[in-house]
Each structure stands twice: as structure tokens, then as C-alpha cells.
């Protein structure tokens, strides 16, 4: 006969349940801690990678900017710009007003700036040629004072009056504005550079009606070769909905509308670095120095004109900042508050660089329009650099 078998008592069962609940609490706490650490690590890695790529891309543009545009006649010249591919919303009818400069910034206070860089690609050593005879408004052929050797079909050129001036609002004031155009053909005798628009991308920078401005008389304007028009580098960086965007003349499909470049970028900011030394202390041939940072164009040469050509000639560097955020926000608690809430908006340009130069700190807005998660639940990283405008030091 089998002996009597006994099961668990109620007390033993209750103890087992308590032990199981304690184990479950431990596992849950470990899972929550792991998820929090994972979000923090992933967010930090994302913001680090995205911020470095974004800053490197803009830094590379800044380092090359100004090539071909560093002649004292061109630098800072108000211009009319035409483009059948609609870069900067230009067209080949009336064009848009621009300023020829290595870097141009549309400052937006606490919101992201729009930063543009410009450079040519001519490596032939071709210098300028002068306008040889009167050039009337509406012409598509420039008669010059020497044979235009080295000027090839499709090359981008800059036409500049010796004495620039005016705002270059359409219609342009005769003889006052610079113009970017494109070589459609050249003639040896009489020496001529043709800038007709033939409806193809080879002449995309030519106005359909010819030059809007007239250049009166010999030696009143010069023509500069900027290199192959397909490689003319006009780049504009901005931020929209947490994405760094690029608009570029030399990137297929990115002239008319910007293309997404780097995700996770909530702000970009810039400062101009000016050499404001006066008199004999200002010796650009010996190198420019930074003596003032500014979030706007200033009267750097103290001639009473803000943003004149010589102010651009005193631009020594540009200071760039990128604010990146992690991909995943922190999880809010039961009260709807993120446990690691970011309490203050990021501040850029707060460090004094170079030593002794006054800082221009800017607290930036990092909220993304349409994001259902509050900005304070994300983690942010700020990346900064200073880029000397090296091509300005090689002025003719």
C-alpha cells in the first residue's frame, strides 16, 4: 500500500508567490535601467555622428570658399545672378540680387541661420580681361581688350565694373552691378566673349535678354574667369524640421529645391570674424587677424558704410556651430515629465576664441515644428569650429 503523499501548504505557496514577485520587480527594474542607458547611449552616439558629419561638410565648404572671388573689384560687389536651374530662386529673366562674397549669412536670432558659401574652380591662371568698348544694356557679346585665351565654352565668368555701386535691384543701374554669366563662345578677332543663352544647361547662368546693365567706355569693367560652370560651387545650408539641408549649383537636383543632407540637426549658427585694425595696423598682405566677432555685417573699415566692399575684404574667418540631438527622446514618467529633462536651451559661441576677443554667445531654439515630444526630453550636443577664409589672403 502506497504511503500518503502531501502537497504544498498555503504558507509555502504564498512564500513562492512573494519570491516570484520580487524576482519580477528586480527584472523589471533592470529592464527599465537597461532601456534608459540604451537610449542615452544611442542618443549620444547619434548626435555625435550627425553633428560631426554636419560640421565637417560646412567646414569643408568654408575652407574652399572665395576662390576666384577674391579680387578687390569682385569682393563684396552687389550683383545680378541668373540661373535657369533656379538656385537661390533665381531665373534667367530678371535674376536676383546677390553679393559676391566667400560667405553670406542670413542671421535668424535664436532660430537656425542660412549660411551660403561661394567659390569658383578656375585653375588655368587666366586673369581678367577688360571691356574694350561701350557695352550697352541687352547685349550678349562682350568685346574685350585682349584675346580671351583660356576662356572656354561653359566657363562661368564674373563681369565687374571698376567702380561698383547701387543695390542691383532689377532693373540694374547701368554700370553699377557685377554679373555672373557663362561663356557660350569666344572670338579671336575682334576679341569677344559671347554670353548668349541658348536654352541649355551650358548657358544656365546667362540672362535671356542679355546684360541688364551697361558698361560705358573702355577700362570701365573687367571680366574674371571662375572656371567650369558645372563646377561653380554656390552652396546654401539651412535647417528644416530637424534636418540639415543643402542647396547647390553643382549638385544635380539640388538647385531648385534643397536636398536633405544630415538628419538630427536642429540648428546651425554662424559669426563673421572681422579684422577691424585701423590705419597702418591693417596690412592684409601680411595676413588678416580676427579682432571682432559679429552676428551681422558691420562697418569694419570705419568708412561710414555698413557692408561696403572693403568690409568684405576685412572678413578674416567664419565661426560655425552645429546643434545635434539624439534620435530617441527619454521616456516620460507617470507624471508626463522626462526624468532627465533638459532644463536650458543650448548656447553656442560662449567660449572666448581667440583669447582676448569678446564672445557673442547665442542661446538657440531647438524645438522642431510638429514634434509631439517636448524638446526638453532630448539630449543635445554642440559642435563648433573656426574656419579661416584662406582665399582672402591671396588677393591679387
Key attributes of the depicted protein:
2 helices; alpha+beta; 5-stranded antiparallel sheet; 396 residues
What do you see in this structure?
- With 396 residues, this protein is an alpha+beta fold.
- The protein has two domains: 185 residues, no CATH class; 154 residues, no CATH class.
- It is built from two helices and 20 strands.
- The chain starts with 9 loop residues before the first helix and ends in an 8-residue tail after the last strand.
Task: Classify the helix fraction into a percent range.
Answer: 10-25%
Total domain modules: 2
* Rg of Cα set: 30 Å
Largest sheet: spatial strand order = 2-1-8-7-11-5
Give the beta-strand count.
Answer: 20
Assembly status: single chain
Question: Which overall shape is indicated by the principal axes computed on the Cα atoms?
Answer: elongated
Helix and strand sequence: HEEEEEEEEEEEEEEEEHEEEE
Number of helices: 2
- Strand pairing plus helix content: what structural class? alpha+beta
DSSP strand (E) fraction? Answer: 25-35%
Distance between the termini: 116 Å
Low-confidence stretches: none
The largest sheet, given as strand count, sense and whether it forms a barrel, is:
6 strands, mixed
Residue-averaged pLDDT, rounded? Answer: 85
Tell me briefly what this model is:
This protein is α+β, with helices and mostly antiparallel strands. Helices cover 15% and strands 27% of the residues.
Amino acid at each position: 500500500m502506497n504511503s500518503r503523499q502531501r502537497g504544498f501548504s498555503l504558507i509555502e505557496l504564498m512564500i513562492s508567490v512573494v519570491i516570484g514577485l520580487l524576482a519580477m520587480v528586480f527584472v523589471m527594474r533592470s529592464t527599465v535601467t537597461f532601456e534608459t542607458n540604451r537610449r542615452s547611449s544611442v542618443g549620444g552616439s547619434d548626435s555625435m555622428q550627425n553633428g560631426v558629419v554636419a560640421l565637417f561638410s560646412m567646414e569643408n565648404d568654408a575652407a574652399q570658399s572665395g576662390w576666384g572671388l577674391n579680387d578687390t573689384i569682385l569682393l563684396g560687389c552687389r550683383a545680378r545672378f541668373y540661373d535657369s536651374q533656379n538656385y537661390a530662386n533665381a531665373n534667367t529673366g530678371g535674376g536676383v540680387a546677390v553679393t559676391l562674397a566667400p560667405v553670406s549669412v542670413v542671421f535668424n536670432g535664436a532660430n537656425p541661420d542660412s549660411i551660403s558659401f561661394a567659390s569658383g574652380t578656375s585653375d588655368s591662371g587666366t586673369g581678367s580681361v577688360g571691356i574694350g568698348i561701350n557695352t550697352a544694356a541687352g547685349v550678349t557679346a562682350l568685346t574685350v581688350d585682349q584675346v580671351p585665351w583660356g576662356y572656354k565654352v561653359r566657363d562661368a565668368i564674373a563681369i565687374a565694373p571698376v567702380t561698383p555701386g547701387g543695390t542691383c535691384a532689377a532693373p540694374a543701374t547701368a554700370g553699377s552691378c557685377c554679373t555672373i554669366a557663362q561663356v557660350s563662345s569666344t572670338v579671336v578677332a575682334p576679341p569677344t566673349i559671347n554670353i548668349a543663352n541658348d536654352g541649355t544647361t551650358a548657358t544656365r547662368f546667362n540672362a535671356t535678354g542679355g546684360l541688364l546693365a551697361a558698361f560705358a567706355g573702355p577700362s570701365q569693367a573687367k571680366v574674371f574667369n571662375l572656371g567650369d560652370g558645372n563646377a561653380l560651387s554656390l552652396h546654401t545650408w539651412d535647417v528644416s524640421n530637424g534636418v540639415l539641408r543643402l542647396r547647390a549649383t553643382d549638385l544635380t537636383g539640388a538647385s531648385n529645391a534643397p536636398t536633405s543632407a544630415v538628419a538630427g540637426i536642429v540648428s546651425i549658427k554662424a559669426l563673421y570674424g572681422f579684422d577691424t585694425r585701423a590705419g597702418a595696423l591693417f596690412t592684409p598682405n601680411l595676413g588678416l587677424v580676427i579682432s571682432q566677432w559679429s552676428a551681422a555685417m558691420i562697418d569694419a573699415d570705419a568708412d561710414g558704410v555698413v557692408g561696403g566692399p572693403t568690409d568684405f575684404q576685412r572678413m578674416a574667418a567664419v565661426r560655425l556651430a552645429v546643434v545635434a540631438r539624439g534620435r530617441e527622446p527619454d521616456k516620460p514618467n507617470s507624471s508626463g515629465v522626462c526624468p532627465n529633462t533638459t532644463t536650458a536651451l543650448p548656447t553656442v559661441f560662449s567660449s572666448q576664441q581667440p583669447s582676448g576677443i569678446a564672445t557673442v554667445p547665442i542661446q538657440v531654439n531647438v524645438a522642431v515644428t510638429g514634434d509631439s515630444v517636448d524638446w526638453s526630453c532630448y539630449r543635445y550636443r554642440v559642435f563648433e569650429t573656426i574656419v579661416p577664409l584662406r582665399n582672402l589672403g591671396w588677393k591679387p
